[in-house]
């Protein structure tokens, strides 16, 4: 595939971090958020000439691959018609709150990415970039073949979409490990051995949850091999869904 245009809907920590890595790697990116392109002038100018701002619908139309880096609670606002036929990377994690929770996730009937796929019925959803933070992505990219290149899990129902994302990861400086369909994506979600901590190492003992989150978000990256990804995914045991740290 020719170098893809990467669309990014949601330009918070994850969207902005991936945009930085992507433009540094030579990709063109189209960015959007909930408040409109005028609010993205600072980010666009910081990223340089490969970035431009748009609405979410324009982002979907312009891009070959779209990262939907929005809170899971907002997934039904993603532009379904414009995303039809596109490969959509879903990095969301389920954080149940008093404002939003999903009975189908609470009962483990669906995974969070199956929920996103249900809304984006005509898109090809790939669960990825959910178990590693933007700080670590910016640390850990390496050229193909480097001994300490980091591997990231991908889950999808469509093998072609998985291949597209694997090629994109290669451009971004990462290997991809195919962990099967979206129904199994709980294996790399929060509360499993593959979630976040392999990429940052052991946190200091005794941190309260907000401190632990801040520590993980700011920790330097630790390389994780493809063999480790496979091994950690196989060790996962399914418990209640949702962020529980
Ligand atoms: N932070 C992490 O370390 C991390 C790591 C892995 C995965 N994740 C997951 O990745 C997703 C994004 O996380 P984040 O930390 O980047 O969140 P964040 O900093 O809160 O940013 C969320 C972004 O989503 C945008 N947004 C919300 N509703 C939208 C809509 N309807 N249309 C378009 N854009 C919309 C927001 O727009 P505005 O800017 O206009 O408000 C904002 O740019 C979440 O699902 C999270 O669980 C996070």
Provide the fold topology.
Layout lengths: L5 E4 L3 H12 L4 E4 L8 H7 L3 E3 L2 H7 L2 E4 L11 H4 L3 E4 L12 H4 L5 H8 L4 E4 L6 H7 L10 E6 L2 H14 L2 E4 L30 H10 L7 H9 L11
Helix pairs in contact: 1-7
The structure holds NADP nicotinamide-adenine-dinucleotide phosphate.
How would you describe what is shown here?
- The chain is of the alpha/beta class.
- It has a single domain, classed as NAD(P)-binding Rossmann-like Domain (Rossmann fold).
- The protein contains ten helices and eight strands.
- The chain has helices at 13-24, 41-47, 56-62, 80-83, 103-106, 112-119, 134-140, 159-172, 209-218, 226-234; strands at 6-9, 29-32, 51-53, 65-68, 87-90, 124-127, 151-156, 175-178.
- Strands 3-2-1-4-5-6-7-8 form an eight-stranded mixed sheet, with helices on both faces.
- Helix 1 runs parallel beside helix 7.
- The radius of gyration is 17 Å and the shape is globular.
- The site of NADP nicotinamide-adenine-dinucleotide phosphate (NAP) has 24 residues, from helix 1.
Distance between the termini: 40 Å
Could you state the CATH homologous superfamily? NAD(P)-binding Rossmann-like Domain
- Into which percent range does the helicity of residues fall? 25-40%
Broad structural category: alpha/beta
Number of strands: 8
Identify the bound ligands: NADP nicotinamide-adenine-dinucleotide phosphate
**Stretches with pLDDT under 50, minimum 5 residues:** none
The total domain count is: 1
User: How would the global form be characterised?
Assistant: globular
The CATH C-level name is Alpha Beta
Strand order in the largest sheet: 3-2-1-4-5-6-7-8
CATH topology: Rossmann fold
Helix segment tally: 10
Report Rg. 17 Å
At CATH level 2, the architecture is: 3-Layer(aba) Sandwich
- The percent range for strand residues is 5-15%
């Amino acid at each position: 595939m020719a170098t893809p245009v990467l669309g990014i809907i949601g330009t918070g920590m994850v969207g902005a971090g991936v945009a930085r890595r992507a433009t540094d790697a030579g990709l063109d990116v189209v960015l959007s958020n909930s408040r409109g392109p005028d609010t993205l002038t600072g980010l666009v100018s910081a990223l340089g000439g490969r970035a431009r701002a748009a609405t979410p619908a324009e982002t979907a139309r312009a891009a070959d691959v779209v990262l939907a880096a929005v809170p899971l609670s907002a997934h039904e606002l993603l532009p379904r018609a414009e995303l039809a036929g596109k490969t959509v990377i879903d990095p969301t994690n389920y954080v149940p709150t008093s404002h939003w929770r999903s009975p189908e996730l609470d009962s483990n009937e669906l995974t969070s990415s199956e929920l996103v796929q249900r809304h984006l019925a005509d898109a090809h959803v790939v669960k990825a970039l959910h178990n590693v933070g933007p700080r670590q992505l910016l640390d850990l990219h390496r050229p193909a073949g480097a001994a300490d290149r980091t591997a990231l899990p991908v889950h999808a129902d469509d093998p072609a979409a998985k291949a597209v994302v694997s090629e994109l990861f290669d451009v971004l400086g990462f290997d991809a490990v195919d962990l099967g369909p979206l129904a199994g994506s709980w294996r790399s979600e929060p509360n499993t051995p593959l979630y976040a901590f392999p990429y940052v190492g052991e946190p200091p003992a005794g941190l309260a949850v907000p401190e632990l989150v801040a520590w993980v978000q700011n920790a330097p990256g630790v390389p994780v091999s493809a063999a480790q990804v496979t091994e950690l995914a196989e060790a996962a045991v399914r418990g209640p869904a949702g962020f529980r740290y």
